[in-house]
Amino acid sequence: MRRAIGLLLLLACAGSAQAHIASNSFLTAHVQGAELAGTIEVAVRDVELAVGADANHDGKVTWGELRDSEPALIAYLDQHLRFLAQGRVCPLTFGSLKVSDRVDGTYAWLPYTARCPLGVRQLEIRYTVLEDVDPSHRALLTLTAGTLAQTGVLGGGRRQAAFAVYAPSNWRAFSEYLQAGIWHIWSGIDHLLFLVSLLLPAVLLRRQGHWEPVARARPAFISILKVVTAFTVAHSLTLTLAALDVVRLPSRLTESVIAASIVIAALNNIFPLVTENRARIAFAFGLLHGFGFASVLADMGLPHGARLLSLLAFNLGIETGQLVVVVAIMPLVYGARSSAWYRRAVLPWGSAAIASLALVWLVQRAVFPTG
Hints:
single chain, alpha+beta, 2 domains, seven-stranded mixed beta sheet, four-stranded antiparallel beta sheet, 11 helices, elongated
């Protein structure tokens, strides 16, 4: 049991100093007759993985190095991105490389056109970017034709996807956004660490300055239910408001406060100020996490014909992914709650590791520009 808990914490706290960096690219495609026009954005860190853009191996990719790698990047994308109309290949032509800034860093931005041998009605997209380097990599697709719009998630072991250009499926939109929500919560390590920080003491009670194990499962279950429900209600509210353009906050502010929320939640386990009503912390900071979730929807967009359905599916995906994490963690910590090792090592030192990592993210996001 100790080994399992230790491994859990190592996995939770491992990773690069940049949190919330899933390997995503962003692909747009607009169909007009027999022609496709759009853009692809690939994170500079992923360009380095794909074609080795860091020529001097100093750990940083400059604009000059990125520009020099442009021919290699175009050749790579030409091999790993393919459009087919009714089963026939649409040859790609790429434009000049530029860069775009997103909250998680700098992206290589390339426009493209694809001329198909006949009018596009059934579009098949084959996407294998980073397949052999990072199998978790995904592309978030926005496909439009006239006033019709639909989205998709490519990659992650899914080599190809087919779309009826002029007959978008609401069920497909629901499925795609559900998967995107699950993927986002699982790849968004900062959201998970905030939740873990609140759940670690859920199997304990604070009495006379010391942590004691709960005697029965019911109090722990109720505590967990309150925390998860409060977090869910809060982030669902702000996610909906942001997705529908009712309220917006700057991404840099949102991401900084999310990092700060992890620091506060983790330090509260070491220097307890709020012990009996952690649901209040979950709700208060869950409001900010909702704006973080909304940033992915802003990148994907909501299809005009299924906005509410897609928003519901994305939110359900987040809750599903979150529930899986809770169900995986809580039996372990409940089984270990009575050991002094859990109370004196796992809780304080695990929380300290989480707080330290989140503090690095906070400094990066609040002080240093992404790039």
